[in-house]
């Protein structure tokens, strides 16, 4: 994958490529292709004629958006990369937190090197040790705060891999005991 292709993909993270195609992330390549073909026919410049109206210009713009989305989502490698970047971007958003989960209440998976916790939907919350360490540091850098006792604990917002629930994963049960006192 070229550097310019990655830059374009990074620029499109904020614009949901699945929404551009009117599709869902769970759709198959065949379903995405079908949506792409429908939209490409609808907005293709040849179908709009040689008109220089604002309607034709917006149609061409929409066609270019649809085509760019298809180029990323039609290739399994670029789609996977986009999905990972999209998930990372989503995790950095301010979402409502369903609950707090303590690291000690999670299961450590040696093979994958991450903590996991079951969601009520049947999905899984998963987070690596590095993600737990970097989140407080990133937050301090964003807010320009000095390190405090509270700022040194581990913590990260983690989304379920199946549904839209988010949990805040934090420190250990020692912290939980201190909060209960």
From TrEMBL:
<comment type="similarity">
    <text>Belongs to the DPH4 family.</text>
</comment>
<dbReference type="InterPro" id="IPR001623">
    <property type="entry name" value="DnaJ_domain"/>
</dbReference>
<dbReference type="Pfam" id="PF00226">
    <property type="entry name" value="DnaJ"/>
</dbReference>
<protein>
    <submittedName>
        <fullName>DnaJ homolog subfamily C member 24-like</fullName>
    </submittedName>
</protein>
<keyword id="KW-0408">Iron</keyword>
<dbReference type="GO" id="GO:0008198">
    <property type="term" value="F:ferrous iron binding"/>
</dbReference>
<feature type="compositionally biased region" description="Basic and acidic residues">
    <location>
        <begin position="135"/>
        <end position="152"/>
    </location>
</feature>
<dbReference type="GO" id="GO:0001671">
    <property type="term" value="F:ATPase activator activity"/>
</dbReference>
<dbReference type="InterPro" id="IPR036671">
    <property type="entry name" value="DPH_MB_sf"/>
</dbReference>
<feature type="domain" description="J">
    <location>
        <begin position="16"/>
        <end position="86"/>
    </location>
</feature>
<feature type="domain" description="DPH-type MB">
    <location>
        <begin position="97"/>
        <end position="172"/>
    </location>
</feature>
<keyword id="KW-0479">Metal-binding</keyword>
<dbReference type="InterPro" id="IPR036869">
    <property type="entry name" value="J_dom_sf"/>
</dbReference>
<dbReference type="Pfam" id="PF05207">
    <property type="entry name" value="Zn_ribbon_CSL"/>
</dbReference>
<feature type="region of interest" description="Disordered">
    <location>
        <begin position="130"/>
        <end position="152"/>
    </location>
</feature>
<keyword id="KW-0862">Zinc</keyword>
<dbReference type="InterPro" id="IPR007872">
    <property type="entry name" value="DPH_MB_dom"/>
</dbReference>
């Amino acid at each position: 994958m070229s550097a310019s292709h990655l830059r374009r993909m990074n620029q499109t993270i904020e614009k949901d490529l699945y929404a551009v195609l009117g599709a869902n992330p769970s759709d198959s390549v065949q379903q995405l292709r079908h949506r792409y073909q429908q939209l490409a026919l609808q907005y293709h410049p040849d179908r709009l004629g040689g008109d220089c109206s604002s309607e034709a210009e917006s149609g061409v713009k929409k066609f270019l958006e649809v085509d760019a989305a298809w180029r990323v989502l039609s290739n399994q490698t670029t789609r996977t990369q986009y999905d990972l970047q999209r998930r990372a971007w989503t995790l950095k958003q301010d979402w409502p937190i369903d609950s707090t989960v303590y690291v000690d209440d999670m299961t450590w998976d040696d093979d994958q090197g991450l903590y996991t916790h079951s969601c009520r939907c049947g999905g899984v919350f998963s987070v690596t040790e590095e993600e737990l360490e970097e989140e407080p540091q990133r937050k301090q850098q964003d807010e320009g705060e000095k390190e405090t006792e509270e700022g040194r604990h581990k913590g990260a917002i983690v989304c379920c891999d199946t549904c839209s629930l988010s949990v805040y994963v934090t420190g250990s049960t020692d912290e939980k005991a201190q909060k209960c006192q």
